[in-house]
Amino acid sequence: MNDDLVVLRPEGLYCPAGRFHIDPWRPVPRAVITHAHADHARPGHDAYLATAVSAGVLRARLGDITLQGLAYGEAVEIDGVRISLHPAGHVLGSAQVRLEHRGQVWVASGDYYLRGEDDADADADPNPTCAPFEPVRCHCFITESTFGLPIYRWRPAAEVLREVDAWWRANAEAGRASLLLAYSFGKAQRVLAGVDASIGPVFVHGAVQPLNDAYRAAGVALPETRALPELRERRAGRAATELGRALVVAPPSALGSAWARTLGGFSDGFASGWMQLRGARRRQGVDRGFVLSDHADWPGLQRAIAATGAERVIVTHGYEAVMVRWLAGRGLRAESLRTEYGDDRVEGDDAGAADAALRPPVPAA
Predict the structure, then answer these.
(1) Which of 182-186, 271-275, 359-363 is predicted least confidently?
(2) Which residue ranges make up each domain of the chain?
C-alpha cells in the first residue's frame, strides 16, 4: 500500500491523508497554494490556503476567491495532517508547504530562490521584495529544477541591477526609452526595487501596475510607477521628452507588439535567468540581456536540497532527468513527477512561451 504523503493525481499533487491538493492545475475542493504565478495558482478551486501576505496578489490575479491566509510558520491541521508554510524566497508570499503526518515530514517547495555559493555573499544577496528562503528539515523534499544545469550560476543581483542602471542612463542621455522585459509578477517588482529611480521616470505596462499596487499594500518599497496610458494623455512634446528618459517595464509578451511600437525609438532588454546563454538573447532579438532570476541556480538547488537533510527527493519540473541523475549519484532516493508547472499555456502575460523558446535542450545522459 502506498503511504506517500503526496502522490500525483490527474488534478495535480495530492495529499491522500489530508484530502487536499498542492498547486493543482484542475479545479479541486481544497487547494494549498505555494505562490501566485499562473502555473501554480489557478482559478476554479472551492477553497484556497496560502500565505496571508500573498492574498493581495492572489486576488488581483484570481478575483474573489475563498482564501484562508497563514503567517509564515503558523500551523493548521487538516484531517490529521499538520500543515505550515515557510518562506521560499521566490516572489511575494511564496512558500514551501511542510506536511507532517504519523511521524513523516514532507516539504513541497513550489519554486524557490537562493544563490548557491556556500559563503557569506550568498546570504547577503536576498530578494528584497519577499522573505528569504528558509531551509526546512524533512524526510522527503519535492523540488523544482528550472535551472538545474551546471551552467546556471548567478552573479549577485546588485551587480546585474547596476548594469541595468548603466544601460538606462546611456539610453536617457541619448534621448531614447529603455524597454525592459520582465515577468509582470515577481521579476518586474524585483527590478523596480533595485534600480536607481533618479535616472528618469518609470512607466509600466498595464499588466504590471496592479501587481505593483499589491506589493506596496504588503509593505514592499517600490519607486513611483505610472501606467503608460497616462503618458499618452499628455501633450505630445512633453510625452516624447519623458519617454526619452524613461525606463518602461513590461512583460515579455509586449515584445514586438503594437503597444511597444507606441514608444517610438527605444532600446530593449530582457531580465531573465535564461540570459545566461548567449544564444538566448540572440533568439529573442533584444539589445541587452540581464541575467536575473527568481529561481535557484545549479549550486543553489544543491545547497537547498542538502539543507533539508532529506533522504528522498522528488523533482517536479525543469531539468528533471539531470537533477535525478545527479542526486542518485550521491546516494539519495531520487525520482521525478510529470507536472504542469512551467507550462507556457497558462502563463499569459508572464510569457512562459518566451521561456520555452529560450530553454536549451537537455544534455544526453
Answers:
(1) 359-363
(2) 7-153+295-358, 157-290
